[in-house]
Amino acid sequence: MKEQMERIRLTYPDFTFGEAVRIETGQNNDVWVVDRKWVFRFPKYASGAAVLRDEVVLLQTIRDRVSLPVPEPAYYSFAESAGQSFMGYALLPGTPLWKDELSRIRDRDALLGLASQLAEFLAGLHAIPADSIPYARRNEAKTPHEEMEALYADIRDKLFPHMRPDARENVSRAFETYVRGTRLPAAAHTIIHGDFGSSNLLWDAGERRITGVIDFGGSGPGDPAYDLAGLRASYGEPFYGLVAGLYPNGAELLERVTFYQSTFALQEALHGIVHGDEKAFEAGIASYR
After folding, report:
1. Residues ≥6 apart with Cβ < 8 Å to 285
2. Can you tell which superkingdom this protein's organism belongs to (predicted)?
3. What is d(CA 147, CA 137) in angstroms, rounded to the nearest whole number?
């Protein structure tokens, strides 16, 4: 804590603050709430600086083009050393919309209202052309095919040794069908969120409305179906169906949504191996052993 808070003070000497509370130590970031009104995110890994830089650029570009509040970076610094880069923004109102809270809502109109907000946000975000964002890492961007081909190679190399034979066969069949075939878009023309799940969707439980969308660290050019897959993984089929029914041509994306969703646990296991996170590895690989 001391080093990260000192980093803020050194970078912005006129920014004075007192209380700093760590609210999350996620897979990729340390997150702090400062004086109950500012959020500061520090990427854990050196590679996070480039990701954070692009996230700041994206947020500055999309904030007036989407229907829900998103973080507005006010303080940021980029360094090559792990734990030195950061982004700070005003705390958005609301708390994460967890699945158990959503499941307690019995009023269909309330559910439709939430679904409508999310569908409108995604439709607006996905309407933003990928080439309109001045990414520093633009040349590194991959097509959905290339992303999944690279993921498949990593799974075969790093995870297959830990998986039972029938699980390997099922994973191979899915990837061969969708990656080797023509079911994934050949190019990524739109911007996606990249981690559109419950922990990043804020809501007001009393008013039953979405109040903001956070954590755009995984954002970039991509397949819109990937965001809908994150939603489906978080909340299940019934609520996903409501959102997909309101999203333009949502029904046509179901096959890709299902495929992407099937990769999420494997991606978590890979993260665990690459970054030495045993908990993430065990959680992701559990159903494949």
Report:
1. 159, 162, 163, 265, 266, 269, 272
2. Bacteria
3. 15
This prediction has a pTM of 0.93
Nearest to 53 by CA among 154, 156, 136: 136
Chain-centre distance of CA 232, in angstroms? 13
Question: Does 31 share its domain with 152?
Answer: no
Domain assignment of residue 99, given as a range: 95-288
* CA atoms of 222 and 264, how far apart (whole Å): 16
- State pLDDT tens for residues 159-177: 999 999 999 999 999 999 8
**Residue 29 shares a structural domain with residue 141:** no
CATH value at residue 115: 3.90.1200.10
Question: Which residue's structure tokens are 């019934």?
Answer: 238
Low-confidence ranges of the chain (pLDDT < 50): none
Q: Which two tokens stand for residue 114?
A: 């939430």
Question: What is the rounded distance in angstroms from the CA atom of residue 144 to the CA atom of residue 185?
Answer: 6
